[in-house]
Each structure stands twice: as structure tokens, then as C-alpha cells.
Fold this protein.
Amino acid sequence: LAGPAPEPAAPAPTALQSAYALLVSVGVAISSLFIARNTPDDVYYVGKSVWVAERDIVPLNDFLFTENVAPAMGSQPPTPSIEVFAGALGRVLGIHGASATWYVLLPALAVLAILALWRLVHRWAPRRPVLAFSVAVAYLYLVAGADAALGTFHLPRLYEGKGMFVSAVIPLMWLYLTEWFDTRSRRSLLLVFALSVTAAGLTTTSAIILPMLVGAAGLAMLLVGRWKDALIGGVAALAYPIGAIVVSRLVLGGMNATGADDAFFDAEYTYRRTLLVGIVGVISGLALWCGPLLARRRTPALLAAGATLTMSVLLIPGVLEVLGDLSGISVVLWRVPWLLALPALIGLLCTVDVPSPAPLLRGAVGAVLAAAMVACFALWATPMWSPVSWVQTHDRPTWKLPQQRQKIAFWIKDQDRPDGLLLAPSVIMRTSLIVTSEVRVVLPRDFYLVEYDLNSDFAKDRLLLARFADGRIQPPKDEVATAVRRVGVGTICVYNGNRYARDTVVDLGFEEFAARKGPGAMTCYRPAG
């Protein structure tokens, strides 16, 4: 098959279009300061940034349970570096690592993510790119709620590497591959490679999703005889992220997935979690399967077709199960829809052209479709700022933490504590490592204990103590005493309502040394004498 002749590049955006995209990106960046979605993973991502900012050290070993002593989590190859960058940024600016992440880095990432979306939409949209871009941004804001919805991985989690990967790297990779197949220029190939390096620095997920994306693009080019261009582009896009994983594991030892979620989501549930169901799911399906018909002709249409074909095959019942069995990465296969650049495809729906001699009527069709889609999102989806999306909105810039927990963690930090680990309610211990790396806690997050053998005393003692501090169980005093001794607890802080814990720690030889009034009334104890 003869390949298609290169199509002339899309018209450059006008000054007005560029100004509009920039204005939207700045508005999105500002809004990022006022919404907060507390996620359990922040203790790892932001906690590492805080460690780097406070200590000026990059922890290559475990920094959650130990002082950079125990082995790092086996399911986390040390290729992502965005958390270290955020911490270094805080160190250079002389501000808290969490402030550097949420007040400096997050708005900058928001601008980049929105501009990346604009560039892809402008390149792929055959007409009305501003309208398509506006619909794509509205989709991100209005369709969240579900824990895997793309809107949830935008502003609420953009500072996490995987959020920036799906929101910015994916659309840019499709853009740069489009430019490579159109122009075959060294510049576009260099951009593909540089972006792949960035992807590896953001998340290990890049080593899973990028091969699927590049495979989808390569398949489209192979169908028109562009096998050489597909091979070169694929090598440029995949050499670094895959090579980095392989080299890191050869140096540090075999990778295991014990630290990952054991849940597996089949094709039906993967679609339900990411593309959603109901009217919003129907719109997502139309964007997926109509994208090749709506995208600009030649390369964009071919690449959209490759993405559609690849995603359609992955959604065939049983395919994800086979991939999981063969690769051992079943725990993250629910992320396969990330390869689509779905917001851009959603926007393309309003670029449909209808035969009509009246230009006004043809433009009106796009406007009506855009308005109808946005109305559907507003009526039948959950917006990014909704409490159902686990998001709190504030009237001023805030850290992405429940404010009472944050105040309690700072209060504990300022106390004259003895040596040893802090035992406190689980949510406070998780918050504490985001506030400071200097207060070491018994259990940063129970999810991570699977890395260190759940049947070991190391894990059992921590789980028992955390549930004891939470008031979920009332273990015998001798079991608490043994766990306290083995773990090395120096400070115990519990809510005043946890009467059993307060009485028990006094019986164990601890004395009260600090008390906090409500809301969140709490008392702290240390060894007597």
C-alpha cells in the first residue's frame, strides 16, 4: 500500500485563538488553588517532596516507615522524579515542600496541561478548534466523581505524576507523533523522545500505557505502508521509559507487584470507571468510535483510527485478563483508556460537518452539539468541585488536606516530644508526614504494609497499634505494651473520645503532656519520667 502524501500542516492558531487558550489555562491554574482532594497516596507523593525539601536528600530507600533505611517498595521502580523536583523547588525557594507542590508546581502544571490539550485539539480538529477545546475543558471540569474518571486525574491530582501523564503527556505524544508522520523532521522525533523521558519521570505507568499508544499509532501507519516511520517513531517513544525500568530493576533487583492493589477490573468495569455509563458513557463511546471520522484527514484521522481499533480490541471480554496473565500488570490495566486523549476526542464531536449551502447553519450545528454535550455533563455527571468527587472547595488557596487534620498535625509537631515514633489516629499519622518528615509515625498508610510481609511482627504490630489508636479495637494491654516496645513508640496521641486508649496508655506507664481542645480534641502522652 502506498502511504498518503503528507498533508499541509494545520493553519497556525490566530492571535485571538492563542490568547483564548492562554486565558483559559491561567483561569484553570487559578482554580487549582481553591479545590482540594485529599488522597491517601499523598503521603507517598507529597511526603517524598517534603522529605527532600527539609533534608536536601533524595531518599532511595524507604522514607515512610524508616529513616531511608529499609528497602524501597518493590512495586515502585525509582524512575519517577517529579516528587523530588517539587521538593527541590521548595528547598531552593525556601518554602515548605507541600507549599511548593500545591502553590507553585500545581498551577504551572495546570497551564501546561491545558495548553497541551489545546495544541492537540487545534491540530486534529478540522474546523471550530476553539469550540472543541472549550467542550474538552468543560468535560474535564464537569465529569469527575468516579475515582478513575479523567476529570478526577486532572486538577484534583495533577501534581501526582500519573495525573500529569494522562492530562498532558498523552495529548502531546499524539501531537508529536502526528507531526513526525506528517513532516518526518528530526525536531518532531526529538520532541517524541524528550516527551518519553518526561513521561518516565512522571510515573511508571508510562512504561505500560506508552507502548499501547505507540502500538496504536504504529498499527495505523503500518496499514498504509509507513512501517519505517512507525518503527523509528516507536523506538524514539519507548526506548527510554522501558529501558529505565529494565535498568533500574537489573541494578536494584527484581520488581514485584505486592504493593499494588489486588483488584482487577475487566473490560466492562474498566469502561464504567473511566468512560462512565449513562448519557455520559454514550458520549464517550461516540467520541471513541466516531473520532476517526471527525478528525482532520490523513494523519490525525489515521492515528485516531489506530487508537479506536486498539481500544476496541482491549475492551473485548477476556483480552485484559489475558494481558494481565501474560504481563503481571493486571492491577493497573484499568488505565488502558488513558491512551485515547479522550477529552480531545470529546471536543471533536462538535466539529461534525453537515452538508448545507448556508455556512451559518453549518456553524450552528456545532454550537448546538457543544451546548447539548455541556448540558449533559452538567446534568448527569458529577463536577470536579463536588463533595462526591471527594473534593472540598475553599475561599482561599489551601493545602490539599482536611484543614482540621492539618492543624492537629502541626500542633503535634510543635510539642516537646521524646524520641521514638508517633502513634496517633491513622488519618493524623498519614497527614503528619505531609506536614513534616521530622515526626516519624508508626503507620503512614496500612496499604503499604504489603511490601513488608503482612505476617511479620513489623506489620502486625503496626496494624494493631493503628486500630487501637483509631478506637476500632480494644486489644489486651499486654499486646499493646509488646507492640509499643517492639515498634519503638515514644509519643501517643489519641482523641479524647477514645477512652479505652487513654486509660490503657496511662496503665502502660505513659503520662499526659499536651492536650488540645475541640474541634478534634486530643490528648498526647509520653513515657512517665
